[in-house]
Write a structure and sequence with these properties.
7-stranded parallel sheet; 3-hydroxybutyrate dehydrogenase activity; 3-OHbutyrate_DH; NAD(P)-bd_dom_sf
Length: 264
């Protein structure tokens, strides 16, 4: 039986039309939270996704196509949530992009975009969500960082810098809200089989002339000792836990769910 512990709450999840964000949004909806979806995609598919979530979990949804590099669009999204639901109770900063290149070859525009989407957008959503959370004296801010917020990999300078920054921002937010019933924590996933990671698998399969399954095993063997992908559903369950009363005194942590990656 679902506890439906989040009935009456509203969750805004950036980058939630697919992958990790969608998994987290569905997990929060299963607990009764109304959902603000954000991301890009085919509008008919997103409409069908909203209808499915509303029907399956008996919650309300809205959708914003706000570009996370544009502060004015982020502000409009937060205003939309305020007008529709009276504010955001649970903020999940998940939107992210990736680019792989050596530092000296890294395109400046890619660096700027990664920092904007993976880091700066979390600042803008948080600063706009906090007044309503403080007025209610309740809130949960969950920043989806990465194992790359804890350790580095070559060729990923912008992503690693942004995710380390997001972990630091998480800690500061937790300290500034420590005297309230607002918490802020980060989730640091290892490899999750999202469309982003599937592209890496496909590229490896083509490069090494191996099957897709062999490419998956090869990718995991380099970093993730469990040999298994983390799932969006597992990350969603952790997000639900962070929203529970049991997690009230968990503040400012960077919780890795990574199949043993960071333990090495």
């Amino acid at each position: 039986m679902q506890s439906r512990s989040l009935v009456g709450k509203t969750a805004l999840v950036t980058g939630s039309t697919s992958g990790i964000g969608l998994g987290i949004a569905r997990s929060l909806a299963a607990e009764g939270a109304n959902i603000c979806l954000n991301g890009f995609g085919d509008l008919q598919e997103i409409a069908a996704l909203r209808a499915a979530i509303e029907h399956e979990f008996q919650v309300k949804t809205i959708y914003s196509n706000a570009d996370m590099t544009q502060t004015s669009q982020i502000a409009e999204m937060m205003t939309q949530a305020q007008n529709e639901f009276g504010g955001v109770d649970i903020l999940v900063n998940n939107a992210g992009i990736q680019h792989v290149a050596a530092i000296e070859d890294f395109p400046v525009e890619k660096w700027d975009a990664i920092i904007a989407i993976n880091l700066s957008s979390a600042f803008h959503t948080t600063r706009l969500a906090l007044p309503s959370m403080r007025a209610k004296n309740w809130g949960r801010i969950i920043n989806v960082a990465s194992v790359h917020g804890l350790v580095a990999s070559a060729q990923k300078s912008a992503y690693v810098a942004a995710k380390h920054g997001l972990v630091g921002f998480t800690k500061t937010t937790a300290l500034e809200t420590a005297d309230s019933a607002i918490t802020c924590n980060a989730i640091c996933p290892g490899f999750v089989l999202t469309p982003l990671v599937q592209k890496q698998v496909d590229a490896r399969a083509e490069r090494d002339n191996i099957s897709n399954e062999e490419a998956k095993k090869s990718l995991l063997s380099e970093k993730q000792p469990s040999g298994e992908f983390v799932t969006p559903e597992q990350l969603g369950a952790l997000a639900v836990f962070f929203c529970s009363d049991a997690a009230t005194q968990i503040r400012g942590v960077a919780w890795n769910m990574d199949g043993g990656w960071v333990a090495q």
